[in-house]
Amino acid sequence: MPPPADIGSRVLLRRLRQVMAKPGDAQARLDRIVxxxxxxxVAEVCSIYLLREEQMLELCATEGLRxxxxxxxxxxxxQGLVGRIAASAEPFASRDAPRAPGxxxxxxxxxxxxxxxxxxxxxxxxxxxxxxxxxxxxxRDYTEDEIDALEVIAMVIAEMADAGQFxxxxxxxxxxxxxxxxGVGASDGxxxxxxxxxxxxxxxxNPFTDDVEGERARLDAAMADLREEVDALVTADMTEAxxxxxxxxxxxxxFAHDKxxxxxxxxxxxxxxxxxxxxxxxxxxxxxxxxxxANPYLRxxxxxxxxxxxxxxxxxxxxxxxxxxxEGAVLVGRTIGPGELLDHGKRLGGVVMEEGGLGSHAAIVAxxxxxxxxxxxxxxxxxxxxxxxxxxxxDRGEAFLRPPENxxxxxxxxxxxxxxxxARYRAIRALPAETRDGHRxxxxxxxxxxxxxxxxxxxxxxxxxxxxxxxxxxxxxxxxRRADQAALYGRVLDAxxxxxxxxxxxxxxxxxxxxxxKRPEEENPALGWRAIRxxxxxxFALKMQLQALLRGAGARPLSVMFPFVAxxxxxxAARTILTETHGRLQKLGYxxxxxxxxxxxxxxxxxxxxxxxxxxxxxxxxxxxxxxxQFFFAADRGNERVRRRYDALSAPFLxxxxxVASRAAAAGTPISFCGExxxxxxxxxxxAALGFRSLSMRPASVGRVKYALRSVxxxxxxxxxxxxxxxxxxxxxxxxxxxxRSAEL
Length: 745
Description:
Number of helices: 26
Oligomer: single chain
Strand content: 15-25%
């Protein structure tokens, strides 16, 4: 039997509002909801499953299934049709549910007599909070209008749940236990503070409306205020912004003025919900679409859209547009756009995000403002509450929610000791990194933004061992013009004030895909079409970048390094393109350098076995430790289960590095080590003992590595390393003990 003609979401919402006005506890409210939906959708069954613990849904109310199944039947995310909807955050319907892929029969429910099934996720701002299901005994195709009505109802249920309308015995989850989260440090540092949730949690007591025109007018007024606010925010920060920073701000402004966003909001209000519910419904739909996008640029832009939606919600609620957190608070959110960080600036002690990456707009701004940030801390938003104590360790990529007293005290001591250590490091900033027995090691920084360059002098480094050029490409929706690239490279060299800078050409592919470049389908992108392989197969972008590097450098010395060279022929082919480009620019009358050095990154074990001629002819080599170790140990550094399995101080890896360093020394070719291992004192000492006379690392690591080098005799470290390679005592504890003894002297 088809549903009545007037069964739109507005009609259903009106009837739901009437029954919800009656008093009752959480169970009574849910029971009334499923009854109203079942009657108005002419469904024999309506059920609500709510999130009860991490990745677990529980049947909390039903009309049509056996009542004894309530609070007994559970599905994990991905389990059964209900779990499938929760995992995908997408509606699902079938006229023959028992035969649908993933169907799982639960005998306690008595649902075997129902053939048709339609379910939608109950979600708020992208967070799945449950699943709403209707079922019919006869085979039936659910219409788009019916699914749309269910989605609107599901959004209202999510609002009610978040507003505390389903609290009470059996429904509250305890959120007081300590929790630890592992992620990735996107901006160095540590912080101890209290949680300030990024996403607004304003309770919407009445999500329904009959005054559609009034809600539309309220929405338009709030949107106008938002756009004015964003324009002022962006303009104020544009004057001193770097090129990358300006791109971030302009993209943010573009999203705020998107006409399609406002049109979708109007359509949602027309369904009969208040403007706040419309904003969240549209944003949840956008999140669902963009999270499935293969293009990482689109996924990163989702953070900007979330940020704007939250701002609009605050405007609609009449709250302060900036929602200022307490001084030193830690901003916690699922995704955070650049606007929130621009609002609060140095007021924040740290930032923790469930999503995002090192190249996200928020990470770029956090580094520019020197705010410690951890990304990839899964499920922290679901567990955190405003005012919860939190510890952020961005150097290790960790966050601790409601830390136990002993951990908090330990971190307070760590922060105090770090402050004392920083004072010691500042005292030796102008001194060379020279061991007690006279071995001098050049310490350099890794950089990727113009805003990173002041660190060169603040930490006492000797140059930039790796300038990642791809960030300029990743933060733009189109290929940067040659002139813009050249201008940036020129400013980088200006900022270096004569200190050496090694520019690495585009390292794209794997997890770094340009938004304007078609991404190939690959089984294993980390071992696929990336870096120099892309440059040689698509030489236009490589030639364009090389022209920009040469033009940006002018007459100044220029060092160019090609990434991910697995075979020496790749280096020779790329070097030929560079020398031809250099000669062509000379003929065209450009001022170009006469001091051009061309190097390669050794990131694959194969290049260590290149010919002796290659080691002689390359101007310099840089061992890319991060990639090299994952290939050497066959352990993906992006996989949490295995990425910590490799050890830079293991005997096999030390032996391998000694061979590489020895071949470079025999050829008279400078060689450096670049990566996370170079920034850890024990590993840095071992690398120096193996023959590496240049180390490139995060700016924050330079002080501690310099202090360690100046504390020891390299001969003593070399003896430890030699013993480890011959099968003796492990190097790490022995070097650690040596450092401890040296610190006591």
